[in-house]
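Structure request: Phospholipid/glycerol acyltransferase, Macleaya cordata.
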Amino acid sequence: MGLQIMVMVCFFGIRKDSFRVGRAVLPKFFLEDVGFEGFEVLMRGGRKVGVTDFPRVMVESFLREYLEIDVVVGRELKVFKGYYIGLMEDHNNNKKNKSGLVLDEIFGEGILGSDVVGIGSFNKPLDHHLFSHCKEIYFVSEADKRSWHYLPRDKYPKPLIFHDGRLVLRPTPLNSLAIFMWVPFAFFLAIIRALVAISLPYRFAGVVLAFLGMRLNLSRPTTSSISSTTNHSNNRSSNPKKKKKGLLYVCNHRTLLDPLYLSAALCTPITAVTYSLSRLSEVLAPIKTVRLTRDRVKDAKMMEKLLSQGDLIVCPEGTTCREPYLLRFSPLFAEMSDEIVPVAMDAHVSMFYGTTAGGLKCLDPLFFLMNPSPYYTMKVLDKVPGASTCRDGDESSRFKVANHVQHELGKALGFECTKLTRKDKYLILAGNEGIVKGH
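Returned structure:
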């Protein structure tokens, strides 16, 4: 009955074609709940068949992609005019998996005498059709599972790089109760934090925000790149005929608040270039934001103009990444300036993620500010030469600069560099290429 209520609440009215939670959100929580001892036994098997009383659509992507299960047999959900109605098919009608294979065909007569091992945690494992084909059956009790260790991240068969959803905590009963009790207070706290950040000068806002639970940990190189901002201003004023460009800050992307935190750390407003910032975020942003068009020529001209007016911040990943990985850097920034300052950023949250791929992006800053004590760690690295290196006739030089900056940021953060892109993220999590209509 509990399972039926959960399925009704979770699935009623959800459009079948748009359901992606099983691939985008749930794998994170499922992986955090995998027992290491059971996982080791599973990996020693040959062909693997997963059987569950859960709706197949909830667990199939996780079992196939992260636990290397070959065939998933679960309960099917009833659909009416393309929408789930929150009811499951009966067990007796659920002998077929997604490929239309019957369990009798999966374990045919030719395999009955071989080493087929069944591992289950059902009260009566022999009642299930699958176990009638097994030579050996092992029953795992709840007490046994409680003694298991959680699967370490470095043992994942496939690294968890992308996932969606707002919750950081696993939604256990106690965690869920704590979240529901915190949300009403958190909403008003987030509004107060936002008003302070928007209305007060940087130095005063930092003190008040620290009192409200927000923190920023900043580290700089021995020869600080930040101090050169003042030198640039002095040079421009002392020699107006030789107009120098501003500094180009290149950061990895953790949340939409990255440019704001950098401005707060430098105590000066910095222009930020973005791809798909919501209109509401643009209006409320205390710093200047400029949208890029994804047209390389137009974007290059726009960034040249902005750098001639002052310092600029760009996140060449093009989208946020929650896990300790860096996505591939777009090389456009390498051609814009010789004054490139890499900045390694990491955001730490305890209840809510301030990013989303399938939800309302205008709410991202609100969810980040709703955390009890959100904080950033920021490392300003030494300058990297860019534009002059890329104009020596070598077309590949801009890619070398971009890869070098990515490597330096990854080393500073302890993150792994990947070749995945913004497009890869949105195809996995949202089923589109991440292009926002009207932007």
